[in-house]
Write a structure and sequence with these properties.
By secondary structure, the protein is mainly alpha-helical. Helices cover 77% and strands 0% of the residues. It folds into 2 domains: 360 residues, Growth Hormone, Chain: A (Up-down Bundle); 75 residues, Arc Repressor Mutant, subunit A. It contains 21 helices and no strands.
C-alpha cells in the first residue's frame, strides 16, 4: 500500500475552545431554567414566601416552553440567527426573572410565560452550536457534558434556594445568565455558509421525518413518568427538604457520567431496557415503602437514574439527526419539545390523581401502563433509528481501529476513484465526521473552496451527500 501523507491521519484537532464554550453557555442557561421556571426549587420557594399555589403558573410556563421549542425552527435557520436569538432571548429571561423579586402580582403570570417561551428559543437554537462545534461521533459526549454540568449548576441553585434564600438563589441564577451572554458574545461562529444544497437538504430531511416522529412519540410516552414524579413522588417527600435539595439529581448525573465514559464499542441499547425496569421498580417501591429519607434515596436513585439513561439516549439521537437537516434548531427543538409535552401530560394526570381521591397505587398503575407501552415500542423504535443512523454505525468500529488499520481502510476506499491529493485529504476528514467548517479550519482553506472540492468528490463517488458517501464506505465491507 502506498504511503499516504501522515498529516491526513494525524490526530484531529477539533475546535475544542468553541465546543467547551458552547457547553458552558448552555449549562449556565439550562441551570437557571431547571432551577427556576421549569419546575425549579427557586420557583417553589418563592411561591412559599408569597403564600401562593404556583401550580397554575408552572403549567403556563411548561406549555410556553413547549411552544418555544417547537416553533423556534420557523425563524432560526442558521447559526448566526441562533446566536442572535440566544442573546436576545437571554436578555428577556434576565429582565423577566427580576420581576420575581417583587411580591406576587399579575406580572408573575406574564413573566413566566415570556421567559419560558424565550428559554425554548434558546435551547432549540443551541442545536446549531452542537452541530457546528462537535463532529457527529463526539456529540454523545458533548450532550452528556451539557446535561451533567447543567444539573450540577441546578443543584447549587437549589441548595441555596431551599436552605438559605430563594432571592439569593434567584440573583445568582440571573448572574449565571449574564455569564452565558458573555460566553455567547465571545463564541466565534465564522462566516455564514450553506452546508448543503437545497436538493440534498430536502432528500435528507425526508429520511428523518418518520424516525423523528416515532422518536417524539416514544419521548412523550416515557416522560409522562417524569410528570408523575414531579406532581406525585416529589411532594410525598417534601418534608426532607435538605436531602432533596442536593440529592435530587445526583443519580441522574452519575448515570450519564457512566454512560458517557463507556468505550465506544459498548452496546448501549441494553441500558434502555435497564432504564425501563428502573422506572417500574421506582413506582412499585413508592407504593409500598414509607416516606423516610432512605425510601426517598432508593426511589429517587431508580427514577432519576432511568431519566439519565433516557435523556442521554434521545439527546444523542437528536444530535446525530442534526446532520440530516440544514435547520438544526428545527430538529433539536421539535425533539426536545416532545420531552416537555410528555412532562406536561404527566403533570396533568398527576394533578388529577392528587385532586380527585388520591391513592398511592394510582400513579403506580399508570406508570406500569406506560412501561408496558414503552416495551412494545422499543423494538420498533430501534429498527427505525437503525435504518436512519446506520451510516454512523461504522464510526464506532473505525475509531477503535489503530492508525495503521484506519489508513488501510480509507486508502482502499479511495484508491480506485482517482482523487486528487486535496480531495483525499478532504475525504478523510469527511469520513471522520468533521463538518465543512471544521475541514476548512483543519486545512486552512475557505468553506467555499471546501464545498467545491466536496462537490467533485461526490461526483467521483456518484453520490449526492455525505450520508450516501458513508453508506458506500460502510457497504464496501472494508470494516468488518
Amino acid at each position: 500500500m502506498p504511503v499516504i501523507e501522515n498529516k491526513l491521519y494525524a490526530k484531529l484537532k477539533f475546535p475544542l475552545d468553541s465546543r467547551i464554550l458552547s457547553v458552558l453557555l448552555f449549562s449556565l442557561f439550562s441551570g437557571w431554567l431547571l432551577a427556576f421556571p421549569f419546575e425549579g426549587q427557586i420557583f417553589y420557594a418563592l411561591g412559599n414566601k408569597n403564600n401562593i399555589d404556583i401550580h397554575n403558573l408552572l403549567f403556563s410556563g411548561i406549555f410556553a416552553h413547549f411552544i418555544g421549542l417547537f416553533t423556534c425552527g420557523l425563524f432560526v435557520k442558521n447559526i448566526h440567527t441562533a446566536k442572535r436569538t440566544f442573546t436576545f432571548s437571554t436578555v428577556l429571561c434576565i429582565a423577566g426573572s427580576t420581576i420575581f423579586f417583587s411580591r406576587y402580582s399579575i406580572m408573575w403570570h406574564i413573566s413566566i410565560i415570556l421567559i419560558s417561551l424565550s428559554a425554548g428559543f434558546v435551547i432549540a437554537s443551541w442545536g446549531f452550536y452542537l452541530k457546528n462545534f462537535t463532529p457527529s461521533n463526539e456529540r454523545i459526549k458533548t450532550v452528556a457534558d451539557a446535561l451533567i454540568l447543567s444539573n450540577i449548576i441546578m443543584i447549587i441553585f437549589n441548595v441555596v434556594a431551599i436552605n438559605i434564600s430563594p432571592y439569593i438563589s434567584l440573583a445568582i441564577s440571573i448572574l449565571a445568565l449574564f455569564f452565558a451572554l458573555i460566553l455567547n458574545h465571545n463564541l466565534n461562529i465564522g462566516m455564514p455558509t450553506n452546508h448543503q444544497s437545497s436538493h440534498e437538504n430536502l432528500v435528507m430531511e425526508e429520511k428523518v421525518i418518520f424516525p423523528l416522529l416515532f422518536l417524539c412519540i416514544f419521548i412523550i410516552i416515557i416522560t409522562i413518568n417524569s410528570g408523575l414524579m414531579y406532581r406525585i413522588i416529589n411532594p410525598a417527600f417534601g418534608h426532607h427538604q435538605f436531602l432533596v435539595s442536593w440529592y435530587w439529581s445526583i443519580p441522574y448525573i452519575t448515570t450519564i457520567f457512566i454512560l458517557r465514559n463507556l468505550p465506544l464499542k459498548t452496546n448501549r441499547t441494553y441500558a434502555l431496557t435497564i432504564g425501563i425496569a428502573m422506572i417500574g421498580f421506582s413506582f412499585l417501591l413508592f407504593a409500598y415503602l414509607d416516606r423516610s429519607a432512605l425510601s426517598y434515596i432508593i426511589i429517587d436513585s431508580l427514577m432519576l437514574g432511568a431519566c439519565g439513561i433516557f435523556d442521554l439516549f434521545w439527546w444523542s439521537i437528536l444530535a446525530e439527526m442534526l446532520d440530516y437537516s440544514n435547520n438544526a434548531a428545527k430538529i433539536f427543538g421539535i425533539g426536545l419539545s416532545a420531552n416537555v409535552l410528555g412532562v406536561f401530560i404527566g403533570e396533568l394526570i398527576g394533578s388529577a390523581i392528587y385532586t380527585v381521591n388520591f391513592d398511592k397505587y394510582d400513579p403506580t398503575l399508570i406508570a406500569f401502563i406506560v412501561v408496558f407501552i414503552i416495551m412494545l415500542m422499543l423494538p420498533i423504535l430501534n429498527n427505525q433509528l437503525l435504518k436512519l443512523l446506520k451510516t454512523h454505525a461504522f464510526l464506532t468500529k473505525f475509531f477503535n481501529m489503530d492508525t495503521h488499520e484506519q489508513n488501510g481502510a480509507i486508502y482502499n476506499f479511495m484508491e480506485s476513484r482517482k482523487l486528487t491529493e486535496r480531495e483525499k485529504e478532504i475525504t478523510v476528514l469527511l469520513l471522520k465526521g468533521l463538518t465543512y467548517k471544521m475541514i476548512a479550519n483543519e486545512l486552512c482553506l475557505s468553506e467555499n473552496t471546501i464545498k467545491t472540492h466536496i462537490k467533485n468528490i461526490y461526483s467521483k463517488f456518484d453520490v449526492k451527500s455525505k450520508s450516501e458517501l458513508m453508506i458506500i464506505f460502510n457497504e464496501t465491507n472494508i470494516i468488518s
